Structures are given as structure tokens and as C-alpha cells.
Amino acid sequence: MRSAHSIIAKFCQNNSNNERKDLRKIIAWIKNLCYDKIVFDAENIYLDYQEESLFFSMLERYRKQEPVSKIINCKSFWNNEFFVNSGVFDPRPETELIIEMVLSKFDRRDNLKFLDIGIGSGCILLSLLSEYKNSHGVGIDICPEAIKIARYNQEKQGIKNASFMLTDWRNFNSSKEFDVIVSNPPYIKTDDISLLEVSVKDYDPLTALDGGTMGLNAYISIASLAPQWLIPNGSMFLEIGRGQAADVSNILKNNGFQIKEIKKDSAGIDRIVWASVSPLPFPLD
Predict the structure, then answer these.
(1) Model confidence over 185-229: pLDDT tens digits?
(2) pLDDT digits (tens, 9 = 90+) for 50-66
């Protein structure tokens, strides 16, 4: 048997912090231990023959640039762990800005109704409802696998106030009942998908990436439909791609929305657009 420390030292090819962190995550999953245990006590944690074999099979997948989250079927987002696989988009840290923005605009004690368009793993809606205990929400997606995984994550996290529906958002019928719409829609230009990292283009669903010729197809569709779903003064929080703030803002304005705020991510890129269908009854922060 070899220790986790010796295995990581031997197979960490690039000797980078990110790779070392990824190998620790794999071993933590194999040993059913928390990540910190591998960080601080790797010399005293040993893998038996079967565990080493499993590690090598997972390492082979990792060398092919499959994300660790897809290998171990687990991704951290907000304050929880979400089951993920190749059937759903891998939650990104920048998407947590949606949660932060909603929390900065609405009191946790509010009784709100959320609509999440294109749920993937369910991470946005379930994270919001973990904060807004008095609220409830609906998530819609065209992918049966996404609905299955979101419901699994809901059950695992014990969140009762969410429901998920298998439907194309263009066929979703609702009459001005939602206070807040959230979405991280596909926004990569079709011709740019081949330029993405292997870990993205080969392991995230194409439907979660492809935003059409200009990367704006989803925004055009959502902006035209959202006014019939939102209550008066309702809000919408959309994640956008690099360089899309002006185009998405114009699309929203042309469909009766006011742009309230555009929030940058940690890299200084415009990332989240907050819009409303009419003036909100409270000032901006």
C-alpha cells in the first residue's frame, strides 16, 4: 500500500497547485474522506490495491482533461455540494454572483416566487431557496437528465420548496406570477465552441454552451417571453458572456426592461445583468 502523499507526489505531473488539489479531491472521494483530511494528513492515509486501481482509472480520465467534478460527480457551489455528470453544465464560481445579487436586493425573509430558466444541476434555484426559506421556485429545462439530476440534488439537500418541469421555455405557460427570474443561458457563439478548452467542449452539454451565431439566441427568446411571466416590478438576473453587456442590455430594453445594474466578476468582466420590467420600489444599493 502507498500513502496518499506518495501517490500525489509521484503522479502530479506539472507539480502545480491546481493539479495537486484535483488529485487530492479524487483520493478524498475514493477514501470517502473530507478534502481537508487529505491536505493535512496525506502521509497517514493509505490506498489499498483496489483503491489504487480505482485511482489510476480516474487519473486516466483526468489526463484526458475530463473535469474532476465530472469524474467524482460532485461540484461545490454556494454553500453546498451538487451531483453533476456529463448531462449537465458544470456550475462555475462566477454564477454565484447571481445569488449574491439577489441577496443584495431582496430580504431573506421575503416570500418570493423564483423561476430558473435552464436549470442544469439545479444549483441556482436550490441555492437561492436555501437562503430564502419563506420562498418557493420553479425550474424549467428541456433536458430530461437535467430534471432528474436537479430533483436528486433537491432531495439530497432536503429543499422542499422547489419544483422542476421538463419543458422548452418557449412552451412554458405562466401569467405574471414570478417575482424573480434567474438564468445562466447558453451564450457561446457557435463558431467559438471549437476553441473552448477540452474540459468544456467535450464534457459540458452542447445545449448548455451554444448560443447561436452571435451567442444571443437565448437572450432574445427569454427577453420576449419574460414579461408575461413576471409580476409588475419583477426582476430578472441573467449571466452573460464576455463583451455581451451592451447587446444583451439592448435586447432587454427593446422588450420593455429597464437595466438596473451590471455586475462584474472577479476578472473585471461584465457578468450579471439585473433588469426589471418597470421601476422597482426601492433604490439601488
Answers:
(1) 999 999 999 999 999 999 999 999 999 999 999 999 999 999 999
(2) 999 999 999 999 999 99
Q: What is the pTM of this model?
A: 0.91
Give pairs for 103-111: CB < 8 Å, separation 24+.
103/131, 104/285, 105/235, 105/274, 105/282, 105/285, 106/132, 106/180, 108/132, 108/133, 109/134, 110/134, 110/135, 111/135
Instruction: Give the whole-angstrom CA distance, residue 122 versus residue 200.
Output: 19
Q: How many domains does the chain have?
A: 2
Task: Kindly list the distances between the CA atom of residue 219 and the CA atoms of 72, 96, 116, 268, in Å, as whole numbers in the listed order.
Answer: 32, 19, 14, 22
The rounded distance, in Å, linking the Cα atoms of 85 and 255 is 35
Radius of gyration of the chain from its Cα atoms, rounded to whole angstroms: 21
- Mark whether 58 and 84 lie in a shared domain: no
Query: Which triple of cell numbers denotes residue 258?
Result: 429597464
Residues 11, 50 within the same domain: yes
Note whether 78 and 129 are within 8 A (CB): no
* Residue 189 sits in the same domain as residue 98: yes
